[in-house]
Amino acid sequence: MMSITFKGHSQTPDSSAYSWVCLMARLCLAAVFLYSGSTKLIHWQAAISEFEGLSLPLPAVAVALTVAVQLLGGLAVALGWRVRLAALALAIFTVIATLIGHPFWNFEGPELQHQLTTMLEHLAIVGGLRPMVQARR
């Protein structure tokens, strides 16, 4: 059983403080995907142009699938509905999207640092999703 300590008091998965921590973690991670998905939806043509720049086949379909995964997965995580499945889908999506969209190994200088930083940030998001995938409830 996992426990968290707040001001010297141990919190277990059955405590209300632990539940609040889990809720805040879900909302923080969901916000990343809800923002990204809604931005792509609002700026649809710009998103298609970005995906064309990545040489993706059928960029409009790729954008539609991306928006669907980000919005539906983000909503599910935020609302606490089928969190394990949603977090797993978002983690897999994030790994694939990061490898496609931020190939740091193809860059040099400042752009290498930018792409590598972005890749590491996305890796941290995947790390944040991991406990949700493994949660028992």
UniProtKB/TrEMBL annotation:
Where does the record place it?
Answer: Cell membrane
The answer to keyword Electron transport applying to this record is: no
Q: Which residues cross the membrane?
A: 17-35, 56-79, 85-105
Q: Which domain of life is it from?
A: Bacteria
Q: Name one GO cellular component term.
A: plasma membrane
Provide the primary localization.
membrane
**Which keywords appear in this protein's UniProt record, sorted alphabetically?**
Cell membrane, Membrane, Transmembrane, Transmembrane helix
Indicate whether Ribosomal protein appears among the record's keywords. no
**Entry membrane topology:** Multi-pass membrane protein
Q: What family name appears in the similarity comment?
A: Belongs to the DoxX family.
Q: What is this protein called?
A: Putative oxidoreductase
